[in-house]
Design goal:
Layout (H helix, E strand, L loop, with lengths): L10 H6 L14 E3 L2 E8 L4 E2 L11 E2 L22 E2 L1 E2 L3 E6 L5 E5 L15 E8 L4 E9 L28 E7 L2 E6 L4 E6 L5 E6 L1 E2 L2 E2 L28 E6 L5 E6 L4 E2 L4 E2 L1 E2 L2 E10 L4 E10 L6 E7 L4 E7 L26 E7 L10 E7 L3 E2 L14 E2 L6 E6 L4 E6 L17 E7 L1 H5 L2
Parallel strand pairs: 1-27
Antiparallel strand pairs: 2-32, 3-6, 4-5, 7-8, 8-9, 9-10, 11-12, 12-13, 13-14, 15-16, 17-18, 18-22, 19-20, 21-22, 22-23, 24-25, 25-26, 26-27, 28-29, 30-31, 31-32
């Protein structure tokens, strides 16, 4: 469990006493910094674990509703070769925390990508131990999330069961912060924040999301219901799958900072929130002790419209790491050319960056500063450490559609990982499904950027 420091100027204090004379940040990308590959470890895509013995029978096989429609697939389950699967895939790491002893805390997101196709995908968090010398990742511990005390206010898939294990049709968990004896989790569907007991995975707290006094709701929120064709449009202000993707905490663990994956809809303006005409997402502050939103939020300005957030972690009292990405996948060297459509990437990855952002001197409701970035499509690999994707030019790329894990390891390095969306994403190879990959990047100068 991470220890939080009380000394020094805390993020919440720094922001509350920000200097009004400081000019608001702009959407400037800041300085580009080099990243050097220092380690590469892989967890095979076909890593499955059994459902707990006390789980309903329906959870013993996963992926039964992943066809072209949510109708049940009648095919015989496999051990990872084709859907459905015997057991639960570990795939889809989304959100990472450095624990300081060579292990990392990660979470598996909602399962198979959508609310309608994931009612048999169990929600779980893990402790993992990458071995960068050997290129492997050990699964140390898995904790399944459940709601036996009925803290969650809406009907869940396993409502009538005694254990009430949660599934990817209930929540889409994307960001995690271990604080004390609890794990705080950011969800995309609501978007919601829940807290679970770190030892048992049982839900202890549930919170709706508010920005400037207004509840934030996506089409997947339980309170949003489709009307009749001639009825009034329901009240929601966030796109589907654009809830909390980044989920950071202050260094002392007193505040949480949920970063929405996409911008809020401003009904009065008839447009999504933006900075200078470019999409901007909200970073919303939550007081852990009070169990309430503070009423303060900031804007994260995207580099371009239709970009998305991957992950967010603070590294000190006023600075944080944010993954910003496009929706492409695959190395541009394997892009389709001359009319080809097979054996190549039709929409290769072009924009996969990690930004250093700063809250220093930034008032609430203003855009945070982007002080610098590293390009995950242009990593230096002078020692040939890449275990997959090795190139003759000594460069290494991380060409995945969803890169959803970043945290500081020490003053020189960060860890970065993909969400492999098993068994759907193919970014490393045009044929083989993606593995879970973790890399250590040496970025000392980047970590000093202010």
């Amino acid at each position: 469990m991470r220890k939080f420091l009380a000394a020094g100027l805390l993020l919440s204090t720094a922001l509350a006493t920000s200097i009004a004379a400081t000019a608001p940040a702009t959407a400037d990308d800041g300085k580009a910094f080099e990243a050097v590959l220092a380690g590469h470890a892989i967890l095979p895509a076909k890593t499955l674990i059994p459902a707990p013995a006390d789980a309903p029978e329906s959870l013993k096989v996963s992926g039964k509703y992943t066809g072209k429609t949510p109708a049940r697939i009648s095919a015989k389950p496999t051990d990872g070769d084709a859907l459905p699967f015997n057991g639960q895939p570990v795939q889809g790491f989304s959100g990472i925390k450095t624990l300081g002893d060579g292990t990392y805390f990660v979470g598996t997101d909602n399962g198979f990508g959508k609310k309608v196709n994931s009612p048999d995908a169990m929600l779980m968090v893990h402790t993992i131990k990458p071995d960068f010398a050997n290129g492997t990742i050990e699964m140390v511990k898995t904790t399944f999330i459940s709601d036996p005390d009925k803290v969650i206010p809406f009907v869940i898939v396993n409502e009538g069961s005694e254990t009430r294990y949660l599934t990817g049709a209930d929540l889409d968990i994307e960001g995690f912060q271990p604080i004390g004896d609890k794990i705080y989790i950011g969800d995309e569907f609501g978007p919601f924040v829940i807290a679970v007991d770190a030892a048992t995975g049982k839900v202890t707290d549930f919170f709706e999301t508010e920005v400037n006094g207004k509840t934030v709701r996506s089409p997947d929120n339980y309170a949003v219901q489709l009307p009749n064709p001639d009825g009034k449009r329901p009240d929601y202000n966030l796109e589907r799958s654009k809830g909390f993707e980044g989920f950071a905490s202050s260094m002392d663990g007193t505040k949480l900072y949920g970063l929405l994956e996409g911008p809020l809809w401003d009904k009065s303006e008839g447009a999504y929130e933006n900075v200078g005409g470019v999409d901007a997402s909200r970073i919303v502050e939550f007081d852990v002790a009070k169990g309430a939103w503070t009423g303060r939020s900031w804007l994260y300005p995207f580099a371009a419209n239709n970009h998305a957030i991957g992950d967010f972690n603070m590294i000190d009292e006023s600075r944080g790491l944010v993954i910003e990405r496009d929706n492409g996948q695959g190395d541009a060297e394997l892009a389709c050319k001359d009319g080809a459509s097979e054996g190549c990437f039709k929409e290769p990855a072009k924009f996969k960056r990690i930004y250093m952002i700063s809250f220093a001197g930034v008032e609430a409701n203003q855009p945070v500063k982007k002080v610098g970035y590293i390009d995950l499509m242009d990593i230096n690999d002078p020692d040939g450490l890449a275990r997959l994707g090795k190139r003759e030019d000594g460069r290494f790329t991380f060409p995945f559609v969803t890169i959803e894990n970043v945290d500081k390891v020490d003053d020189e390095t960060i860890i970065v990982g993909n969400d492999n969306n098993f068994p759907f994403s193919k970014g490393r190879d045009v044929v083989a499904v993606d593995n879970n990959e973790m890399v250590i990047l040496k970025v000392g100068e980047f970590l000093k950027a202010r």
